[in-house]
Amino acid sequence: MTWLGAVPAWCWWLIVLVLVAGGQQYRVVIADGAAADARAETAKSDKALADYRLQVAERERRAVAQARTEEQRRQAVADEAGRKADEKYTDLEGRAVAAESAAGGLRGEIDRLRAGHRATCNTIATQQRQARTSAVVVLGGLLEESDRMAGSCAAALERSRIAGLACEAVVDRMKDP
Fold first, then answer.
1. DSSP string computed for 107-158
2. For residue 123, what are the contacts with CB-CB under 8 A and spacing of at least 6?
3. Contacts (Cβ under 8 Å, ≥6 apart) of 107
4. pLDDT truncated to tens, each residue of the chain (177 aa)?
5. What are the extents of the domains in the chain?
6. Exposed, middle or buried: residue 77 (CB in 10 Å: 0-12, 13-18, 19+)?
7. Which of 29, 95, 120, 163 has a CA 20 to 30 Å removed from the CA of 12?
8. In Å, how far are 28, 29, 136 from 16, measured between CA atoms?
9. What is the dihedral of CA 33, 34, 39, 44, to 10 degrees?
């Protein structure tokens, strides 16, 4: 009998059982190490993801603040241009009132000249007087109407010029930061 036969069979089973249990224990230790490495890698990835999210949030906050600042700057430019245009409109309205007053004075002068013309023309022949009176009346009416139209056209053109200049100022300032 050999020395292998001297070892009882149950010992062989015990040896096999110890070897299998040791192998399984070795696999568990290796798996625990791999799991710990995976947990460490996951923690590193989670930290990197949190850092990235923080960076993105900070960039977004800066972009929103910059956009808000630019919007406020543009609004201030537009408000300033609007204020200047309103001042010009107010000045224009004052000048229009003064021009209308002067035009009213001219109309009064035309009416006075018409009345004077009628009074002085009584000595002239009826036909000549009628022809001159009608010419003075027609010319006076044309002068009054052209004066009114010129005033309204000038006011409209001045308003559109002021609005255009205000718009140009806003656009120019929007381009220059």
1. HHHHHHHHHHHHHHGGGS-HHHHHHHHHHHHHHHHHHHHHHHHHHHHHHHHH
2. none
3. 144, 147
4. 576 677 788 888 898 999 999 999 999 999 999 999 999 999 999 999 999 999 999 999 999 999 999 899 888 888 888 888 888 888 877 877 777 777 777 777 777 776 766 666 555 555 555 555 666 677 777 777 777 787 788 878 888 888 888 888 777 777 765
5. 10-175
6. middle
7. 29
8. 18, 20, 140
9. 110
Q: Which two tokens stand for residue 148?
A: 């009114």
Residue 39 is encoded by which pair of tokens? 């947990």
Give just the sign of the alpha carbon dihedral 88, 93, 96, 97: negative
Structure tokens given for 88: 């010009």
Cα 51 off chain centre by: 34
